ABC transporter (Streptomyces mutabilis), 318 residues
Amino acid sequence: MTTQSTSARTAAGHRKESRRRPPASSTTKVGRPGFAWALPAAVFFALFAIVPLIMVAVLSFMSWDGLSSPEFVGTDNWSRLIDDPVMLKSIWLTLLLTALGVVLQTPLSILLGVWAAGHQRNRAVLSVIYFIPLLLSATAVSVLWRALLDPNFGIPADATWLFGDGNLFGEQATAIGVLAFVSTWQFTPFHTLIYQGAARAIPPVLYQAAEIDGAGRYRQFFHITLPQLHTSMITSMILMIVGGLTTFETVLILTQGGPGTDTTISAYYMYDKAFKSFDYGTGSAIALALVVAATVISLIVVRVSGYDKMRSSMEGVS
């Protein structure tokens, strides 16, 4: 009797223990984090991004000099911008500088990123030296190159055989070239980091299989490395496009929109209207147009490239 009751209690204890503890082969599902985890970031984003954007949108339909009370003028600000030749010219210049940034920075970033992902001798030291411009602000970089390219005391003054009269800011073509060069010098290291991380994530077995098949270094680069960098390339290009459409400090410090209005991009024209002419309504309209343009172009790039349909093979929380 005692033996039977003891066995029954033991069996009941085992069943209870098995109910409490899941089998070792089962996988514990992890649910999505609750909304409370995202609340601080959502509040911060709303206060410093959504609310100011709504205020700018409202102000674009107002006439305001910064002192008197805003006055509703409807679409007058937008109508003036459509007929403003400087605004139309600034749009073309903005698109030109953005395109130059993509064309110049993309191949340089890919080549440097793939190289930095390797195991060459002194690679780490050279990478650190090259990434120094990434640590500087756009203002500091612009001040540095403004001094270096000064026509009276800078490099052009001592190399007239190369720069002619030395005034690189006196003509539209050379001024645009300087802006494109300075932006490339500063931001290429950032995109290089993107490609460096992506190149290191490529499975080595792909290169090993290519070597067995007799593929050389160049064939491996074009048939393995570049296709594997496709997602990172789209991400980098979107960042370049948004950065190109909203760049401001470089133009303000290097050319101030000159000569004349030959380098007056849309972001600088917004500053000129709002903070020099005290026409905050028109300045807000330009700012809102830049936001819309950057968003639309980014969405087009995402849709055309198929980036929105890409999925990682190692998804996080499902």
